[in-house]
Amino acid sequence: MTKRPRQEGTALIPSNLHVAEDCRAVSEVLARVGDKWTVLVVGMLGDGPKRFNEIRRGLGSISQRMLTLTLRALERDGLLTRTVYPTIPPRVEYKLTKLGHSLLDPVSQLGLWARQNRVAIQEARQRFDDAAGAS
Question: What is the model's pTM?
């Protein structure tokens, strides 16, 4: 059996991604950290602790329910802490954990990459759609 040469542009895939359990774990984490609202909330909390309404105002179009669900999921995953202060009414503050702070750089880099390549991706989609329509 002869070994085929690697195609140009084909990246080598780490062997552990072929293990079903590892693949599921990676997919689960990427689903959380790749979520639109997760990225935005983590970015907002990068400046320091914020209250619920500060986060909501900063994000603009998020519903109260979606923000609540996102914050709970981030707390559950250990990316942020929720602190309730015994005041009337209670004051609640959200703050990134050490793990949450470690996500800031990759999220920022991915956001930068997306902004830098948005036009190229849109052009590629248009070329693809034009070619598919011509077939």
Answer: 0.73
User: Does the pLDDT at position 125 exceed 70?
Assistant: yes
- Whether 11 has a pLDDT exceeding 90, the answer reads no
Kindly write down the DSSP assignment for every residue of 5-62, as one continuous string. PPPTTPPPPPGGGGSHHHHHHHHHHHHHHTSHHHHHHHHHHTTS-EEHHHHHHHH-S-
| Domain spans, the chain | 15-134
Tokens of 23: 């693949």
Strand ranges of the sheet holding 50-51, from the earlier edge strand across to the other edge: 50-51, 91-96, 80-85
CATH class of 15-134: mainly alpha
